Amino acid sequence: MKDYKLVKRKYIISGFICLIVSLYIVRLFSIQIYETKYKENAISNAFLRRTIFPARGLIYDREGRLIVFNKPTYDVMLIPKDVGNNFDTLSLCKILNITEDELRKRWEDMQNPRLNPGYSAYTPQKLISQLTQEEYGRLEEKLYLFPGFFIQKRTVREYNTHAAGNILGNIREVSATDVENDHYYKRGDYTGDLGVEKSYEKALRGVKGVEILMKDAHGRIKGKYDNGNQDISPESGKNLTLSVDMSLQEYGEKLMAGKIGAIVAIEPSTGEILCMVTSPNYDPSLLVGKERGKNYSELVKNPFKPLYDRSLQAAYPPGSTFKPTQGLIFLQEGIVNTGTAFPCHRGYVNGLRVGCHGHASPISLKPALQTSCNAYFCWGLKNFLDKKGTKTGEQFEKWKNYMVQMGYGYPLGVDLPSESRGFIPNTEFYDKSFRGPNWRANSVISISIGQGEVLATPLQIANLSATIANRGWFYTPHIVKQISDSIIDEKYRKKRVPEIKKGYYETIAEGMRMAVLGGTCKTANLPGIEVCGKTGTAQNPHGKDHSVFMGFAPYHNPRIAVCVYVENAGFGATFGVPIGSLIIEKYLKGEISPSRKGIEERMFNSNTIIYSGVKKH
User: Fold this and answer.
1) How many angstroms separate the CA atoms of 234 and 57, rounded?
2) Under CATH, what is the fold of the domain 251-286+309-611?
3) Which segment of 6-20, 26-40, 199-213, 490-504 scores lowest on mean pLDDT?
4) Strand order across the 272-279 sheet
5) What gap in Å lies between CA 48 and CA 496, rounded to an integer?
6) Residues with Cβ < 8 Å from 36, sequence gap 6 or more?
7) Which residues, at least 6 apart from 93, have a Cβ–Cβ distance to it below 8 Å?
8) With a threshold of 0.70, does the pTM exceed it?
């Protein structure tokens, strides 16, 4: 008779054996295929894989002058497994001129998975960065006392200028977030921070190489593995040629010393930025070396915000530099022609009053640009928005779309980080503000003269000047002219054309030329150079008005378009026009004529920062 209990027991025992075998198989598979600990241990006992960092790309200005280059520095590296617990910490601290507490903190940070994702005791880790040449020499001499330690050579940035910190940016040590977001980086690597160093990081950084070295049983280096045939050579980063004329940049920063604001100059035919000054600025060399953290903290705490790039981040009321855009819209929409005249009774008077200064009345478009008449542009907007047979909201959307086409209301797309969009309101914005659609032109009339809700960056204003200079088109402004072995992004080589007839731009250019010959921009009337300009005095509820200038030159075949914005400096003609005219003259002639040296000295020595207080933007 069959014993079913024995049969069941046989199956149970067989199943149990199969389970144990399966567990062993899974574990062996895991160890051999997925587990890296033992593999790393074996490899680290026999080999040292040393990263070879590529040379970061060099940076030149448009004239081929070397601006940013590399200098050698040294990092203290170690393989934790090979160090042991009894190395002479006191001697190491003495050699490196640090305290034991500092060393302990660095060691803890190195092992912290939050600060150093992917930490392994079997792979090289960075302990201390950027040794000086003297520290390197002292440690190299005594390195045999510290098993598991080695020195890794790399480079940091060096500068041939004290200017353009906002353009050049700097490099910093990667954060844990950087490491998580890009597997190229390991703890202790460097990445671009601000300026072109950040926006062109992938081009500048190059590709790392690897050197494989053999070790003996005591961890001592015995030479290259396979005579170096398995090494991977690094690929140097790509060199950048900026569109910036560094001489003009330095000159602009000198003019803006003691002031808050910005200068942006563009080559109209290419969209290349010739200078981009923000003031106050900072020396880029402050953010290199061991003092970087301290200097960065001081810059952050500075009440005048030198790290804040006002040329492309500050959103300002554009003031009367906005009037050419209104003239273009009125012409395009048939609201005015060159002979249409509006009254100016020391301002716009129509249920409310917008003040203006004295000049002939009634006045047409070109003289209105020449004298910067507020009333003309208020009447023009009134007739456009409240046009018979239309709805104000629908007309306003049409107005807003024209403004966007001309480069306002959204980032232009410059190849630098953190560009502001400025602000151009839409119909929905005013419907909410006025609690319904029952608003009219008079409700928003101040936008016609660049006040009220409209805001623009100096870059956007300079771009408008370039568009008028080109008589109706522009390239997206950009700071990099050329990348070695590559080409710049297609968007910087594609024309952008607002839907406004070319002939209307000519009318606006004529009005801006009249402003220089006998209007609000007379200081910009340079001998031998036909300058076109438009002033702006932007009202400021927080203090003294802002001084603004927008212009281009020459009148025919223009080579430079410029915007100058000086906070709390009063009328546009007081600071904006003189500084703008000096930038134009310096670029086109290479020097300032003797008759204008007095203006130059006055701009160099003027201080308007005293009127600013501490502000936020």
Assistant:
1) 13
2) Beta-lactamase (3.40.710)
3) 26-40
4) 272-279, 261-267, 560-566, 546-553, 532-538
5) 54
6) 120
7) 99, 100, 102, 103
8) yes
pLDDT single digits (tens) 277-301? 999 999 999 999 888 889 999 999 9
Q: Measuring CA to CA, which residue among 464, 432, 430, 610 is closest to residue 550? A: 464
- Tally of CB atoms within 10 A around 420: 20
Q: Is 494 helix (H, G, I), strand (E, B) or coil?
A: coil
Residue 255 near residue 586, CB atoms below 8 Å:
no
Q: Give dist(CA 575, CA 602) in Å, integer.
A: 10
* CA gap 361, 364 in Å, rounded: 9
Let me know: does 513 contact 527? Beta carbons within 8 Å: no
Q: Which letter does DSSP use for residue 487 in this model?
A: -
What's the start-to-end Cα distance of the chain, in Å? Answer: 97
Among 549, 554, 594, smallest CA distance to 572 is for 549
Residues 548/564, Cβ–Cβ less than 8 Å: yes
Tell me 130's DSSP state: E
The whole-angstrom separation of Cα 299 and Cα 302 is 5
Task: Provide the b/e sequence for 225-239 (b: ≥16 CB within 10 Å).
Answer: beeeeebeebebbbb
Closest-CA residue to 318 (of 94, 536, 160):
536
Instruction: Give CA angle at 17 (12, 19), nearest 5°.
Output: 95
Q: What percent of the chain has pLDDT over 90?
A: 64
What tokens were used for 425? 């309101």
Q: What angle do CA 615, 276, 570 make, to 5 degrees?
A: 45
Give the CATH architecture of domain 54-210+219-242: Alpha-Beta Complex (3.90)
Query: Hey, what long-range contacts does 586-590 have (CB within 8 A, 24 or more apart)?
Result: 586/248, 586/251, 587/245, 587/248, 587/265, 587/274, 587/559, 587/560, 588/529, 588/553, 588/554, 588/559, 588/560, 589/528, 589/529
Domain boundaries, the chain: 1-32, 54-210+219-242, 251-286+309-611
Taking a C-beta distance cutoff of 8 angstroms, is the pair 41, 122 a contact? yes
Nearest by Cα to 119 from 73, 187, 212, 188: 187
Q: In the block, which residue shows the tokens 């890009």?
A: 182
Helix (H) / strand (E) element for 578: namely helix 576-589
64 exposed, middle or buried (CB, 10 Å; 0-12, 13-18, 19+)?
exposed
* Joined tokens for residue 541: 């509820």
Closest CA to 56 of 230, 222, 198, 259: 198
Residue 472, both tokens: 């109706």
